[in-house]
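Journal club side-thread
Mid-discussion, someone asked how the predicted structure for our own chain would compare to the paper's figures. Pasting it here so we can look after the session.
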Amino acid sequence: MKYLALLSGGKDSCFNLLHCAKNGHELIAAASLGPEAGKEELDSYLYQTVGQDAIEFVARALDVPLYRRVITGDAVEQGSEYGSRNAKDATARGVEGDETEDLFALLSDVKSHHPEIQGVSVGAILSNYQRVRVEHVCRRLELTSLCYLWNRDQGELLAEMIDAGMQAIIIKVAGIGLTTKHLGKTLAEMHPTLLKLNQQYGAHICGEGGEYESLTLDCPLFKHRIVLTDVETVIHSDNDFATVAFLRIKKAVLEPKPPVEAFDLKIPPLLDDPFIAIRDAVSASQENLDSRTERRPVPVMIKEPIVDDVQSQKYGPWVSVANVQHRDLHHVVEISIEDEVTECFNILQASLSEYDLDVSNCTNINIFLSSIDLFARINAIYSTFFGSSPPARACVALDLPHPIRVRLDCIAFIESNRGDRQALHVQGLSYWAPANIGPYSQAITAKEHVFISGQIGLIPSQLSLPSPWSLATETALACQHVARVVNVLSSSGGGWKGHAQAALYWVSDISDLVHVKRVRDTFPEDPRTPTLYLVVKALPKEALVEKQVLYHTGRCPVVDEDDGEVTMQSGEPTSEQKYMNFADGSALHWQAWHLEDESHCAIISVKGEDIALTTNAFNDANMLPKLKRSISVRLFYVPSRAASAISLCKSLFANEKYPPTTPIPCRFIATGDADDWDYALCIIGSS
């Protein structure tokens, strides 16, 4: 795509341009924000403003037009989110008076001159603050953020910059161990010092903590190199802890350089080592002819279980809404798919409003389609209901009974304070994990629960599936995406050691199921995690596998007996499994995960027609008391058991008011150790 470079002049913004070029994008223009005339530096939360005198030279070296704007706003909104979660506000405006709106005005101006521009190059490595705001602006302007350095290892990045021929110098120091003597030194000259400071003090190797700032004098994309002919050292403050000083660039010139036809650039490997092992294990399984499963005919839906209308329930700070779907099941009036989605969200909103909530309070939504061909049209309407920090989401196609084309459920969270619900919503293209340019976050964290969106095996830098089709690579990528989302959440959330509470693997071809199961033999995922494998009609983008995980940070509130103060401490989950086989061939399998009194998840798998037999065994095992705090239930069933699915659910919950339950027809249901279950219940509970 054609893109503009958001330039600070530093190493990161320029190095990202090399990756944009390697990924086939075409640079059209550059844009930069800086202080008003006479000010050399601003205390900006969002922009690097030192070195602005040289920005003009960087753009000229790149041989592209430069668009500039003065920063007039302040850091009005300093939280982890930017803009409104309300869809009606989100695309119309940001936060009045915030410096982010200066960027919106600047990029709007560039786009008016270059309407062909589709992307924006951003050099963010670690800053969620910067990334969130740039992506908010890009979304409003229908631009794609190109952020190939995002979440890369800083040690690797700095070495790659040097190896790629980046000539950047230090123009500001503000970190421990850095002094005026380091000003003007190149990255190569500073490399040993920066590594040493990282080891001694934990300083960020790439300066992500504000330790230093840089100016690029040459890189492979430059048509000319920049030569500084007159500079002055300015000391802002000098103390025993850290000197703050910068180079004032008084004069510079451009020198011609021979054209660079090609340049070497290290691209991060698609898979990390643990996930290469998954790919290889799945591939080896596919090569083993004995492990293949014969294809089965597509089952015919006999009858949809009779389910009450939309169901909802509040438990503590949680509200669940289930079985949201079109109400005219007799198909009296033909409506468009757009109207059907809108009706579903109106029903959802009406249910949430009973608890003084709206859709922006949702933490997770599961959306089920009758055909994956409807995905784009449904997504277009879905996106109109969410602004910033939308809920996590999983989407699959099912054999829904006619005339239903959309069914959904959700879990919402009642916040005491705005920060109680945290979103990870990365919308830029990178090598990290797939961008969620659409209306859902990679993950939502609330009350130590982490709802992770369903992950398919997209190549992050391209947002496309591997070509040719590869179950092995898709499975490995889906698992890696989940792991990388968890790692980012953990590192930004205090370094918690989390635990997977439940894992679902959605598969579109039954013959692939046995191979996907090899993940458990290869990947060091907690064997205590309740896991289910589900064969369904289709997955987004015609993917072969989708992984959906519910996580918990592992932290629990502990009350001090002396002063009553509440602190968060790490807890250790417990788990249990039970197998029951009966003479008539019926079976019951129970997988449960508990973290003290804070949270629980269970997957109950059932085989057989005798509901009374199953229920008695369930009660004899004293399982029901453990489910009293259940928030929601997803009820998976095969077509031959459609009529009895809800009866089973009611019976297992002793005919009490069972939690909101969404029926989900599947073509095949399996657990790690057994196949061909008739039903499975995935139950989520909390305090």
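Post-session note: The two ends are 48 Å apart (CA to CA).
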